[in-house]
UniProtKB/TrEMBL annotation:
The keyword Aminoacyl-tRNA synthetase does not apply. It holds the Pfam family BON. SMART domains: BON. It comes from Allofranklinella schreckenbergeri. Residues 1-26 form the signal peptide. This is BON domain-containing protein. InterPro entries: BON_dom, Lipoprotein_DolP, Transpt-assoc_nodulatn_dom_bac.
Amino acid sequence: MHTFSRNTIGTLCLALAASLGLSACAPLVIGGAVVAASVAVDRRTAGTQLEDEAIALKTLSALNGQLGPEAHVNADSYNRQVLLTGEVASEAARQHATQLAQGVENVRAVFNELQVMPPSSLSERSNDTWITSKVRSQILADGRLPAKSIKVTTERSVVYLQGLVTPPEAQASVEIARNVSGVVKVVSMFEFISEAELQKSQAENAAHHAAPGNNPWTGPNH
């Protein structure tokens, strides 16, 4: 079992809020228990969400510290699976990045999509941000998809999709991303769950968060 100090939780809470587009970790009352609003719509457990934020921060710190300023790297984590994107100066640096990510605590898999080439320009990165925003907006607008459980990353107009989804949800998400203007390729990195597994997981998470003392965002009740 992993424990987090209140300061660590506060830092990760703010990082999680930023990544989810929330102004803060606003509380939501469910069955008498207070949980973060994101927990209600994210298929990961609250603990895994915190772990993912910690993993991403630690991985990026390790990469920036070891690969130097000539590298442009991004690190995203979903369900403790790390996605590396960006550019490095050599194949040796690319392989070293994998080793660094694998060495971060709680990481269970690393997908290295780093390219050996000069760093992307500011205009390219701005375009990637715009594409990510459009894909997210389209997924959210669809109404059938668990938008908060789908992570979108764009690098050089290539869209990477992560999340815990059913096969039909994955197919629909990929189709949406493919039809967004400016996207040159979509890479599906989803983990699949069945409808039965989804319903069971949602019921278990709801029961867990409703139980007294099981709120990882504020710590144990006293």
